[in-house]
Amino acid sequence: MKPYKNKINKIRSFALSLIFIGFIIMYGAIFFKEHQWLVIIFMTLGVLCILGSTFVYGWIGFLSTRAVLVECPGCHKHTKVLGRVDMCMYCNEPLTLDPSLEGQEFDQSLNNRSKHKD
Ligand SMILES: [Zn+2]
Questions:
Q1: What's the gap in Å between 8 CA and the centre of ligand 1?
Q2: Range of the domain at 81
Q3: Whole-prediction pTM
Q4: From CA 46, how far away is CA 60, in angstroms rounded?
Q5: I need a surface site. Which of 4, 13, 43, 63 has the fewest CB within 10 A?
Q6: Cα 87 to middle of ligand 1, angstroms
Q7: Both 27 and 46 in a single domain?
Q8: 90 C-alpha to center of ligand 1: Å?
Q9: What is the CA(70)–ligand 1 centre distance, in A?
Q10: pLDDT 10s digits, 61-106
Q11: For residue 95, how far is its CA from the centre of ligand 1 (angstroms)?
């Protein structure tokens, strides 16, 4: 199993899970019907999760415009690369935009190192 995933896909699944968590929290409010303040807290948390997810989806949209569309050398599909190193959305092939990193072992920390540069 490969530990890394394409960043955009990863954020998208995070946003999707936030929606589910939000609904589960709001559903949980039903069990506290006798305590109105608990219902209010649960409902607020649930709404916050769903709002957060909406925000994350908007953020993905913003990131997608900054991502570079490349053809994956592994599966020849077009995938979006975010940052210096990223994985192919389809086959998890490690991809890099920096020629100096080509052939190097894939390492998530390569992204963090470049963060301060740009
Ligand atoms: Zn691929």
A1: 14
A2: 71-114
A3: 0.74
A4: 21
A5: 13
A6: 8
A7: yes
A8: 5
A9: 10
A10: 999 999 999 999 999 999 999 988 999 999 998 898 888 777 666 7
A11: 9
